Task: structure prediction
Amino acid sequence: MNQVVAIAVNTFKETIRDRVLAVIVVFALLMIVGGLWLGSISLGEQGRMMKDFGLVAVTLFGLVVAVFIAAGLVHKEVEKRTVFVLFSKPVGRAAFIAGKFVGLCATMAVVLAGMGVFLFLLVWAVAGEASGMLLVAVLMVYVQLLAIMAVTIFFSTLGSAILASVLGICVFVAGQLSHNVLALTRLGQNAVTEALSWVVYVVIPNLAAVDVKAGAVGESTLAWGEVAVWTGYLLAYVVVVLALAALVFRRKEF
Amino acid sequence: MLRRVVAALVVLACAAGVVAYQATRPSRAPASPRVFVPSPRFFQDFSPSFRTSIADLYYLQMVQYYGEHVSGDGRLDSLPEMTTLVTALSPRFTRAYLFSAFALIDAGRADAAYELLKRGFAANPGDWRFPAYLGFFAYRYGAGEEKDLAAARWYEKAAAIPGSPDYLPRLAAALLAKGGEQGKAVLMLGQAYLAGDKYAREKAVKGLECILPTEKEARMRALAPLYETMPRADADALVAELFREYVQ
Result:
C-alpha cells in the first residue's frame, strides 16, 4: 500500500510539473470568449449554451490530457530506464501500475475540478444560474475519463505511447456507440458474428448509458439509482482493466 | 545585419500578403435556401451523449439561417427540417420551439408551426406558453366558425397550468362567449376572479357584465354554476358585485 502511495505521489508531482494545469487557463479563456460570443447569437439562451458547450469542452480537454499523459506514464519510465531503479527495490509491478493510475487520477481530479468550478462560476456570473447539476456532470465526466485512462495505461503496457493514445481515443469513441454494437448483436443472423458483437459490446466501456450533459441542461431528469449503478460499473471496469494491465506488465521483460 | 533585415522584410511581405489575400476576398454570396439537414435518427444513434450539444449547434445555425433569408430572398425552405432536428434531439429546449414556431409563420407554414407547438406542449406539459401560443395561432390562423372555440380550449388549458398569467382565463372566457359557450365563459371568468388581484377581479366583473343577461332572474340562473366551482364566500362577493346595480 505504501508503495502505491509513494508512486502515486511521485506521479502526481511529475504530471503537474508537465504544465498540465495550463489546460485550465486555456479552457477559461476559451469559455470567456465563447460565452460572450454565444450570448450575442443565441437569443437569450446564453446559460444553456455555456453549460452545454462548456461540458463538451471539459470532456474533450479532459480526454486529451488523460489519454496523452496516461499513454506516456509507463512508457516514459521504461524508455528512461528509471523503471530498473524502481524494480531493483521491493516494488511489485501491480503496485507500480496502481500507483501510476492513482497519481494520474489525482492530477485529473485537479484539472477537472479547476475547469468545472470555473465553468460553474462563469455560468453563475453571466446567466445567473448556480447549477449544481453542472458540477455533478463534471464528476460523471471524470468517472468516464477514469475508464479511458485505465484502458490507455493497459494499451501502453502492450505497445508504444502513440499507439496507446490512438487506441485510448478510439475506445472513447467506441464507448459512445456501445448501444449500436448491442443493436448489431440483436440484428445478427449469424451465430458467430452475433457472439463476436456481444464480446465487443461487453469489452468496450459503455460511456453513453447515462446522458449527464442532458441532465445538466435540464433536458432529462437523471435517475440517481441509474447513475449510481453506472458509476459502479465504470469503477469495476477500471479495476478489471488495471488488473489486466498489471498482468501484461508482469510478464514483460526489459 | 543586411541578411537579417532582408529576412525580416521577406517575413513582413509574406504577412502583408496573407492579410491582403483574406481582406480582398469577395463577401460570401447568399447561401442556398435549401441546406442539408441530417436525420435526427443519425445523431440519436451516433452521438447519444452529445445530442443536446448538437441540438444547440443546429439551433444557432437555424437562427443564422432565418436571419440570413427572412430579410433577403424570404425563402426558408429548410426551416421545418431544422426545427424537427433540433426539437427531436432536445425535446425540452423550449426556446427552440417558440422561435421556430414564429419563424415558420414567416415561412408561410402556419400548419407546421401549430403542429410544432403541439409537440412542444406534449414534451413540456408544465409550460403554459405552449397552450397560450396554440390558442393564439388557432385564433389568428385557424379557419371556420370553430376557431374561437378551439382557441378558447387552448387558453383554458394554459390557464390551468400553475404560474400562468391572470389574463388567460379572461381571454378564454371572451372567446368561449364569442363562440356561443356562455356557460363555460362564466365559469372561466369566475376562475379569473378567484385567482386574480384587484385589477384582475375588476376585469373579470367587467367581462361577466358583457356576457350575462340583464334580466335579474336569468342573470341569477347564469351565475348559479359558480357556486359549484368557487368557494361560497368568493362566489357571494362576485354575485354581490354583479347585482350592485339591481340593489340600488
